[in-house]
Design brief:
The complex is a heterodimer of chains A (640) and B (179). Chain A has 640 residues and is an alpha+beta fold. In chain A, the strands form five sheets. Chain A has a six-stranded antiparallel sheet. A five-stranded antiparallel sheet of chain A has the order 8-7-11-10-9. A five-stranded antiparallel sheet of chain A has the order 13-12-16-15-14, with helices on both faces. Chain A is elongated and about 205 Å long. Chain B has seven helices and four strands; from the N terminus they run H-H-H-H-H-H-E-E-H-E-E. The chains are: A alpha+beta (640), B alpha+beta (179).
């Protein structure tokens, strides 16, 4: 390596380093390259370099001669103090006590060259920067084009992805659709169908593919007009929408709504046909049901009324017209309350109806309505609010039955019952008064006879005493008779108190307390039941029956047997004797009041009447089985 | 180029803690950069935030994580961006002397990149000092790891010692590398 010394003039040096800057030890500019004046005119000899530039890189603690010495021969970036875009890139070298900066502007683009007031001649020929900027520009353009291509590519990819997703969605919609979907070629051959179509028709996919929808769906019930309409539209390449019966593999059919749509290619030629077959069986059934319900409402003998959500009449059936006397024109849109109700219509009942409607609950009531002529009539109304699919109150309907006649009958019946009750009461009062009034003279007669007998003791002839005895017997019978009448009149429905009554105990008691002649045996067969009845009346009932049986036995050995048979809904008691028996023609007669068949001194003719009245009050039955001379059995059936 | 450090951080975290943890760490750090793109500009705060999120998640010392990250940067650069390490000196010393110049060139080429600033001083036969100039506080262990990574890369028996932090002017972290 030779020991050369390079000597340049300023001009000469400026040719090689047109952007050089020579600084003295105070960092004052002493000389500069020719292009610096164009690039940064303010940098003139004599100015302090640090007033205009600072060292951006490498890092120095301060910009002075000492720190410059540290970064000699290092890549150095100088940046203008006032304009960060003015940047010089190069390196410092020492030249004696001077610092020489050899470098060039750092530019990012060809445009910036012009912007900085520079041309190609301002750069040294060996400096590749401008060529590199051209390469960079070319690279940038290529990158830009690539980016544009990439964007197009990405957009297309996105579009494809969207299309694929859309296709997947549509495919899913078609496959999973509850409605049957078929695709056909233009010649009507099916080339795709979803599961719903196989399910609805009962055919397998293999049986369907290659056939036409008509092959698959035509049945004897298919309406030819609808079929022709569909086929015509199809072959014309038009969409269609028909309701038609569609056959199933098993020979049955279902109602469908078939909607078809041709699919065209970009030239407008039909390439496929798409059809959706909706199962309308349920809708049809509902439709038929609706027709039926409409007919029921229309033809109902009762009046039918439908009001809208505002409470205005929307529809009535002919019976309503007949009942109210108003025509449809006079009724529709009217408020039924204002139109049909009048002075005697119960406001309380109307309030009840209003409350029920507002609560959405059904109501049932009886009301007085007035017809067009102002004549009032009774109706029984049953109504119910109706709600739409969203659960909102939409209207209410009411069925009105004309109950005017029934109301009249009810009133008549009520009047009759009241009148009967009054009569009964009067009769009872009468019986009580009569009995009381009759008993009083009887007791007086009894006392008077006793006094006569007492005062004339020993002086009365045998015959007279016999007469007195007969008077006593008659008085006693009279007393029984009056007591019987009183008892009979007191038996009424109001005293049918129900308690547990042990009939076995009661009948045993009766046997113990009544007088039973020695030759007569009264027995109980088995265990008698406990029944729900009034204790006193039960005793009266059986005491009368048993006494009767005992009293009318004409055999040397009398037998009376009491028993009971339990049935599902009742108890049937019997009192059987071996007495004289009762002739068939008298079986009914014996229960009538004051009807005594026997010439018994004690018979009042009231005993069996009392029995019958008690049994009637319990809604029971009494009947007789008897054979003249052999005996009689009284049956008493009491409901449980 | 911008995001070599970002890529390196991700590689380090995935290699040491697994992909699943890395997702958590990323979430926790709140750093919103694409760690797979070398086009995303890097700055020191990313390393700092990721290190702290990692330390918290893995229950580690943040400084140890930062140092690990620094070492990881060299490892990743050597594997994935080998050309950046080539032609920058045959020895560790040459490499370190050129380190400021290299980053200064990078700073010129990628003006958006806030390239780290290094300074070399006290160049001796068996040692030299590296100054790291940064605005980010607490990044010291990261640089130490970076330098240790380099000693390992060149397979040289060198030690890295932290000397001092100087805050005269801009913050400088000064390390001594001795052979």
């Amino acid at each position: 390596m030779g020991d050369f010394k390079f000597t340049f003039s300023e001009d000469n040096f400026s040719q090689i380093f047109p952007f050089y800057i020579l600084l003295d030890e105070t960092l004052t500019v002493t000389s500069q390259g020719k292009s610096i004046a164009k690039f940064y005119p303010e940098l003139k000899p004599g100015v302090n370099f640090t007033d205009h530039f600072f060292i951006k890189r490498p890092y120095v603690d301060a910009f002075n001669a000492a720190s410059l010495s540290e970064i000699i021969n290092q890549l150095t970036i100088l940046q203008c103090n006032t304009n960060p875009d003015i940047v010089l890139r190069g390196q410092f070298e020492t030249m004696g006590s001077y610092f020489l900066f050899a470098g060039s502007p750092w530019l990012f683009s060809v445009e910036e060259v012009k912007q900085r007031n520079l041309t190609i001649f301002d750069f040294a020929n060996y400096d590749p920067q401008l060529d590199l900027l051209q390469i960079l520009r070319k690279q940038e353009l290529t990158t830009l084009e690539l980016k544009e291509q990439l964007k197009i590519n990405t957009d297309q990819k996105e579009e494809l992805k969207r299309d694929r997703e859309e296709l997947n969605r549509l495919s899913l919609v078609a496959s999973a659709n509850e409605n049957a979907i078929v695709f056909t070629h233009p010649n009507a051959e099916i080339f795709w169908c979803n599961d719903a179509y196989t399910r609805l028709t009962g055919y397998s996919r293999e049986e369907i593919i290659g056939k036409t929808p008509v092959d698959i769906g035509r049945t004897a019930l298919t309406d030819d007009d609808a079929l022709n309409e569909m086929v015509n539209h199809f072959y014309k390449g038009e969409s269609f929408d028909v309701e038609i019966a569609h056959g199933k593999k098993d020979g049955s059919f279902f109602w469908t709504r078939a909607q078809g749509q041709p699919i065209y290619d970009e030239n407008g030629t039909v390439v496929q046909f798409f059809a959706m077959v909706q199962d309308m069986t349920l809708e049809k059934e509902k439709e038929e049901q609706l027709v039926l319900l409409s007919l029921i409402a229309q033809k109902n003998m009762n009046a039918v009324l439908i009001c809208d959500s505002e409470g205005k009449i929307e529809w009535v059936n002919p019976s309503f017209n007949t009942l109210s006397g108003y025509s449809n024109a006079e009724l529709i849109g009217q408020d039924p309350v204002a139109l049909l109700h009048g002075p005697e219509t119960s406001n309380e009942t109307l309030q009840y109806v209003s409350d029920q409607v507002s609560k959405g609950e059904a109501y049932s009531c009886e009301l007085i309505h007035y017809n067009k002529a102002g004549k009032k009539y009774w109706v029984h109304i049953q109504g119910q609010a109706l709600y739409d699919k969203n659960g909102d109150y939409s209207r209410f309907f009411a069925i009105l039955e004309d109950i005017t006649q029934r109301k009249q009958l009810e009133r008549q019946k009520m009047e009759l019952v009241e009148s009967l009750e009054k009569s009964n009461k009067e009769l009872e009062d009468y019986a009580q008064i009569v009995s009381h009034d009759l008993k009083s003279p009887l007791r007086s007669i009894n006392s008077l006879i006793a006094w006569i007998k007492e005062e004339n003791e020993g002086n009365l002839a045998e015959q007279t005493l016999q007469y007195f005895s007969m008077i006593d017997n008659k008085l006693e019978k009279m007393e029984h008779l009056i007591q019987g009448v009183l008892t009979y009149s007191k038996i009424d429905k109001t005293d049918i108190a129900k308690e547990n009554v042990d009939t076995h105990e009661i009948i045993t008691n009766i046997i113990n307390i009544i007088h039973i002649p020695q030759q007569i045996t009264v027995s109980i067969s088995g265990q008698l039941p406990v029944i729900r009845a009034d204790r006193f009346r039960t005793q009266q009932l059986f005491q009368n029956l048993i006494s009767n049986a005992v009293n009318y036995i004409d055999k040397p050995q009398g037998l009376v047997e009491i028993g009971c048979k339990e049935e599902k809904k009742c108890f049937t008691f019997y009192v059987k004797d071996n007495g004289m028996g009762i002739a068939k023609e008298n079986h009914e007669k014996v229960f009538k009041i004051f009807q005594s068949l026997a010439k018994n001194e004690k018979a009042t003719g009231l005993g069996l009447s009392i029995v019958k009245k008690i049994i009637d009050n319990y809604k029971g039955k009494i009947w007789i089985e008897s054979e003249k001379g052999i005996g009689t059995t009284f049956y008493v059936q009491l409901p449980k | 180029m911008y995001g070599i450090i970002n890529v390196a951080i991700q590689d380090y975290a995935v290699a040491n803690f697994g992909q699943e943890k890395w997702e958590v760490i990323k979430q926790e750090s709140g750093v919103d950069v694409d760690f797979t793109l070398t086009d995303s500009p890097y700055n020191d705060t990313v390393a700092y935030k990721v290190a702290h999120a990692t330390a918290s998640e893995m229950n580690l010392n943040p400084d140890d994580v930062l140092q690990g990250l620094g070492e990881g940067v060299i490892a990743t650069t050597n594997i994935k961006f080998n050309s950046f390490l080539d032609s920058r000196g045959n020895t560790l010393k040459d490499y370190l002397v050129n380190l400021p110049s290299f980053h200064n060139r990078i700073a010129m080429i990628y003006p958006e990149l806030n390239a780290p600033q290094f300074k070399v001083s006290h160049i001796e036969d068996d040692s030299l000092q590296i100054h790291y100039v940064s605005h980010t506080k607490g990044i010291k262990p990261f640089i130490k790891g970076y330098l240790i990574g380099l000693t390992k890369l060149f397979n040289e028996q060198a030690t890295v010692t932290f000397l001092e932090s100087v805050s005269n002017g801009r913050q400088q972290e000064i390390f001594k590398i001795s052979w």
